[in-house]
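User: Fold this; tokens only.

Assistant: Input:
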Amino acid sequence: MPATAHRPVALSAAHTSAGSRTSPPLGRPQQPGVRPTAPASPNPAAPTALRPRVGAPSADAAAGQPGTPQSGMAPRGRVLYQGNEARLMHQAVGQHVVPHRLRVPGTGSVRARLRVLHRGEIALYQMGYGTHAELRIDPYAPVYLVHLLHCGPGRLSVDGRELPLTPVITGPGQEVVVRYAPDTTTLVLRVPRRVIDGVVRPFAVDSPEEAPVRFEPFLDAANGDVRQWLSLAHSFGSMVDSGLLTRSPDAAAHFEQMLVHGLLACQPHTHNAGSLRGGPVGAPIALRRALAFCEEHASEPISVADIAAASHMSVRTLQEKFRTHLGVTPLAHLRHVRLAGAHADLLAVAEGRSDDTVTGIALRWGFSHLGRFGALYRAAYGRLPSQTTRLGDAELYSLPRTAG
């Protein structure tokens, strides 16, 4: 981000998820080798880095707002936020799209807009900030984002790997940083993890609930199957614009199924025969056992040896698996789980659902040294535990950082 004479404003988002209507459950994935079919698109080879329309100024330009990705569609849908306050834009994106940390230069003034174009089992959003902005997405959020289209400059990195802004898919367990310029606008497809899990679970060797499916981030349009899926996604945007999907919920549900099944069929991920950078195909079952054990026993005095024994691995192998697949140590992950549990209990106090104390909560989650607990909690959530019991999340939309 360009240097500025002002101190950047950094905000953090709470782990909230958008509500959605109920669609028919997604069924079996299509057979390998069968490519998704889609309605004819006026431009099947539409580029993924698009220039604004040439001609009369758009309403967006007249209003001083970021441009619109050009995919042959007007900016329909409902505006969720449009204004100049980074804090409110941050809150809207965190609530509807994905929890994240937001960093903008100077005083935090933006010219931002967030618009929802479609919301069902999956959702389609259009967003821009009207200033330089950096989003660090919560790696624990149960959400996949397909960054489909953009206009204006921008960059995205996944686990330190620099990529173009689009077309890219990101998901749980990945360190994702998205950088916007003042005239950048993106079109983002949001797919909840439960939707992906619902498709792959019947065909997985073990339940995928503990370890998420990980996709190869870059959607390479040089691959024919990927190119056809991108055409399908662009057609989805055009149909959203036409109003047809609003008038026919069944058509919308079927189109959503085609998008999800097609994505799993064409893009390499950890539950197919493709390969991902940074690790072997498939999250090991033993690692899934370790993650489940941490979740179930986080409030108990467990050790790394206990986690290793529960997952049928040696301590050394356990540490290697965590480092390879998650990029953290077993103790760091356990600490994150405990802090998240303590945070939930502190919020219950703030909301009047519990009369517990900070000391009681800290001890219950395995933090016997209150000073150490306070320091770790503040590093993760930006405030002291006692402040959370008084204020809840009223002034801070937080997500825990992974402690190293």
